[in-house]
Amino acid sequence: MAKASRDTLYAPLRLPRVYNLLQSLTGGSRDRADFVKRHVLFRSDEKVVDAGCGTGSALEFLPPVKYVGFDPNSGYIHAAQSRYGSRGQFLCGDADSSEVWELVQSADTFLSFGVLHHLTDSQIRKILSLAQRCLRQSGRFIFYEPCFSARDDVLGRICMNLDRGGNIKTDQAWRALLSEYFATLEEHIRRPVYWFRYTIQAFICRDPRQL
Ligand SMILES: C[S@@+](CC[C@H](N)C(=O)[O-])C[C@H]1O[C@@H](n2cnc3c(N)ncnc32)[C@H](O)[C@@H]1O
Prior knowledge:
This protein is α/β, with parallel strands linked by helices. It has a single domain (3-208), classed as 3-Layer(aba) Sandwich (Rossmann fold). The protein has eight helices and eight strands; from the N terminus they run H-H-H-E-E-H-E-H-E-H-E-H-E-H-E-E. The chain has helices at 3-9, 16-26, 28-39, 74-84, 98-103, 121-134, 154-161, 171-179, and strands spanning 47-51, 66-71, 88-92, 107-113, 135-148, 169-170, 182-190, 200-208. Strands 1, 2, 3, 4, 5, 6, 7 and 8 form an eight-stranded mixed sheet that branches. Helix 6 links the parallel strand 4 (107-113) and strand 5. The radius of gyration is 16 Å and the shape is globular. The chain binds S-adenosylmethionine. The site of S-adenosylmethionine has 19 residues, from helix 6.
């Protein structure tokens, strides 16, 4: 599907209420929560950056941490601030914004939950580069995105082709891209059973490569 028609078709999802409603109807954040609960431990003093934080729904399943979320959609940021303002800092912007660069420095954990497949390749690289540069050497990048793989369910494959994000990559392509920025990748393939069956590829990436 062409980018312009995809943008028009999914325009209502730019509204925070519509986006939140779809998330709860599809169970979109349930599997993210389960992945984090099973595989990611947080210290209460760690700095967690949530890139493309949307309406801040990760705070539903994150424990208390020093949370910073950024997103270019001002409506989402407003909704996040109203609901979770006491739990962290939110900033409207993207990886090109100098305020974002300043705020995210010395992060322990950098999250990208369902964000990168909405971006162009150049925007994806800006986010990965931001994560690589702002993480402490002991830090980690948590990646959770849909992927095309040899074992996709047929219905899932159709839904992924129609996804609002038009840049879902194959599992090999995501792996190759991440390994340019991080030396150690711990990979988890997930097939959460919603009413559609996406293949989700999650990584815990460590050892940001030195520039
Ligand atoms: C599917 S939503 C995911 C939101 C959130 N991470 C979650 O798990 O609910 C994708 C998000 O990416 C954001 N986004 C779009 N372009 C971006 C960019 N260049 N940098 C960071 N985030 C971006 C969108 O505004 C949207 O909030």
